[in-house]
Amino acid sequence: MRLIAVTCQNARTVTPHAGRCRRFFLFGDGGGPMVGTVELLQEEVLHAAPLGPEHPLAPIQVLISGGMGQDLYRRLSARGIQVYLTQESSPEMAVRLYLAGAPSLPCNDNSGCGHDHEEEAEAAPLPETAGHCQCAHGHSGGGGHQHCRQHKH
User: Fold this and answer.
1) What does the DSSP assignment read for 63-93?
2) Rg for the chain (alpha carbons), in Å?
3) DSSP label at 142?
4) Would the CA dihedral through 68, 34, 3, 94 be positive or negative?
5) DSSP type of residue 13
6) Are 90 and 34 in contact (CB under 8 A)?
7) I need a labelling partner for 104 at 20 to 30 A (CA). Which of 49, 73, 87, 90 fits?
8) First-to-last CA distance in the chain?
9) How much is the pLDDT for 108?
C-alpha cells in the first residue's frame, strides 16, 4: 500500500508551507478514510531536518500540500517521494484528486502566496538556503515575497 501524507497544520484543511508543517494526515492509496497522523517535533520539520530512514515521514511515498519550496521539492523527489500540490482544502478530496490523476500545481519560485505575513514578522529568519513556496495567499509589505519572514522568498 502506498502511504500518502497531507499537510494539515490546522488539523482541518490542506495547508501550505510543507517545509514548516508539523501535522500530517496519512491516507492509503485506496481513497478511504484517514489511516493515521504524524506530529513532528520542531526540529523534525522538513525545512530543517533531513528525511532519513529514522524520520517520522520516511515511510511515505506521496506528499500532498498547498505549497512548498523548490528546495524541499527537489529533496523529496530525490528520495522518491512524489509531490502533489493542490488548492483543494479538504484533505480527503485532495487525496481523491491525486488518485484520480488530476494535475498538480507547479512548484514555482515566482508564485504569489495570497495571505498577509505581517503578523509573522517576529519569526526567526531562515537560513539563506531556504526554498520558496507555491502557496495560494499573497504577501503584503511592498515587494511581495521579499518581506515575508516566515519563509525565504
Assistant:
1) EEES---HHHHHHHHHTT-EEEE-----HHH
2) 15
3) S
4) negative
5) S
6) no
7) 49
8) 36
9) 63
